[in-house]
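User: Run a structure prediction on this.
Assistant: Running it now.
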Amino acid sequence: MEENLNVEALDEAEDKSKKNAESIYEIVSIIVSAVISVGIIFTFFFKISTVSGESMENTLHDMDKLIISSVVSDVEYGDVVVTSQPNMFNKVLIKRVIAVGGQTVWFDEETGKTIVDGKPLDEPYIKEKMEYTPAMDKLFTVPEGHIFVMGDNRNNSSDSRDEFVGTIDEDYIVGKVIYRFGDKELFKNQVKES
């Protein structure tokens, strides 16, 4: 009888050991699947980027961490995008879309307003009134398949107003900013229709 109890105790210990091993396997399997899923999502659908510089203040600040949606079907006025078009800085740019292909952009010297297709934009997101520069003397017509971008800190931004940046070919759009770490909700573009 004592022998039967020892055999039963050994069987119970083996069953417990098997159940523990199965539980550990399940947990490890779930963790590995989650890591692979996150890797795939961030490889194909989202990217993480860091703001470098002050050109997007007060919306974005130097060293802010952003999540970028890589799935870009179309862009429109107000979207904040990351672009990889070659430029003299040899780095990606984070700017706000002001106009798209076919639209015209002009700057009113007296008011400092940006005029798109003859209408002044309501731009509550800009840091301060834009100072006039000679580069703003002409009427820009955005080529089809391109976007005209500017930083929210207009007086400290190299953007589509400058020859060495120019309009951005849509093929060089890396993605749209959808989240800034530290925000309690998704990134909002703060755009008002004019």
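The first strand starts at residue 46 and ends at 50.
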